[in-house]
Every structure is written in C-alpha cells, then in structure tokens.
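Throughout this chapter, every protein is written as a compact record of paired, labelled lines. The reader may check this reading against the record printed directly beneath this paragraph:
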Amino acid sequence: MNLQGLKSVVALGPVSLTAAGTATSANIDCKGYEELQLVVTKTTHSNDYITVLTIQQSDDTSTSNFATVSGYVVATDYTLSSLTGGTNAATEKAAGVFNIDLRGKKRYFRVLVTNGAATGIVGITGTLARGEQAPITATNQNAGVVVNPS
C-alpha cells in the first residue's frame, strides 16, 4: 500500500495565536525522503489571514542557518491574503498546501508564521513521501499507532 510509505509530522500546534502573534514550527527532518507536503490550517476568522509565512531549509538545526526556500516566496509565488481560515466546520478548508520536491534541497525544514489581526488557531502538519525505505512501524511513521486493515 502506498499509504504505508508515508511519514506524518505535526510541525506546529495547533496553537492559539493572538493578533499579530508569531510562531516557528518544529524542525522537520527530511532525510531519506523525496517529497514533503506542508498543510497550514487557520481557524476562527474567515476574513482574517496569515500575514507572514516563510518556509525555510537548512543542512543542520542551527537557527541561524535556515534560509528561505525559493519557489515558496510570499508575493512572488502566492499571496498571503489567500491564506484565510474559516468559521464553519462544514466548509472548512486548509489555508494552504505546499508541495515541496526535496531533491536538491537541504535536510531540515521549518515554517515561520505570523497571525493576522484577530486571535486564531494555526496549525501545520507535514507528510513526507517517497522514502528510501518504507517506514512500516508506528515509530518510523511518527505515530502512536498505525492501523492497516486487510
């Protein structure tokens, strides 16, 4: 099953950020994978959007070594005003989905985010795919339990 070859990570939260509140996600170790999908969610206010979102990469986990990933630059590759949340669970959608080809990229990724003008909940999850080895155990998939019905 292709789904058994994925590794999930919770990079951020979900956390409540005050108006103009900032957060930095956990570092995501992408070693051994070719693809990373980051999903950003924002809830509470459909007319308020994330004001800063920067995807960064580094060869190590030193904070000073992270640099913005080209191809994912605000105002060049997408607009922040499109990163809105919603207030209706029936129509809720991800604020943003970022598909990253890791070939030729650095090992670690992180996301910097600043909330908009109203308190809201922001979360970031990641899915690593196309690993050198299938992470078939719960530990290797970064999960408490993995269920694979037959």
